[in-house]
Hints:
The chain is an all-alpha fold. It contains 14 helices and no strands. Keywords: Signal.
Amino acid sequence: MIAITTQTIKSMARGALAVSAVSLIAACSPPPAAKVLADTSERYILTSYHEFSTTSLQLAEAAAQFCAAPTQSSEAFEEVRTQWRRSVIAWSGVQNLQFGPLLVDNQAWKIQFWPDKKNLIARKVETLLRSAETLDIKRIDDSSVVVQGLSSLEYLLFDQAAGKLDSYSNATGPRRCDLLVAVATHLHGVAAGLYDAWRPEGGDYLHSFIKTGKNNPEYPDDSIALANLLDTLVAGVELIKRDKFERPLGLDSDTSRAQIYLLEWWRSQYAKEAIIANLNSLQTLFNADDGYGLDDYLTDVKQRGDLSTKIQQGFTSSIASAKAIPNSLFSTAKPREQAELIAFQSELSQLLSLLRMDLPEALGISLGFNAKDGD
Length: 375
């Protein structure tokens, strides 16, 4: 017979408290799917919108400082260009999030008009410059999306004829500066509005996305919100493979010809860098940065750690292959004969297959319709 001592009672009490504490923690911990939504939203989506808002503000400030100087210096002009590139990278982090506030009132088109198959950007911007209208934020807001956003700014900053420093020093310079500042300021307004729409202190779309349930008409259950993340991954890689890479370089079929002016950011020759940023951001979405992401959900809940590892490797290999492409995509000659391009295409195909075929099956979630499906 075991003697019941005071020490034994204390040990039993500590054990009971420990069990109670574990049970309480378990009861308070959100379900895995809810944790994926919360961590992905807070650590990736909200952070990405904040970064885009911040970089667009720095771009607007750099444009204003450049144009406020008595004479336009090359150093100040290069600073505007640098801030434009940083804004493009930040935009690449939210470009594929085709759900929520970004879909309201053509917000994405206000940020980027692409592809520009008829060179409308150059024509519309120059028409606006030749007009007698005041070029301010209101005029830009009332204008077509063609003259708004990063695409219009790329023309004003990088076009071989219209985007040189000399263009701001001649007779048309003042109006060109007015337009540069107005478009950059308008862009920041759009970016800041999107961030505000997501953040808890603003429109709090974050709460709508992660607090699913029968009282949430848009997301009555976790699977619908998770499907948006799945669609984002698939549509994002599809957009890179088809529209940002294969079609412009004529790699989408045996009979296709390169259409180099369909490349994203061809004037600044920044297409490859934007693709790398897209892939980095999509991998971060998959991982919820360093939080509990789809990668953990696959491993813990679906017992598919093998697939999670394959997808991780697919992103890592695709990013490495993109970085290995020499020079810019715009300066590529004979794409079908360049080994680095073919290798990148192969890596993208394998990654897309994992995301489009294996991942939905493993998650038990069907891919939804997205605006980038089809031709």
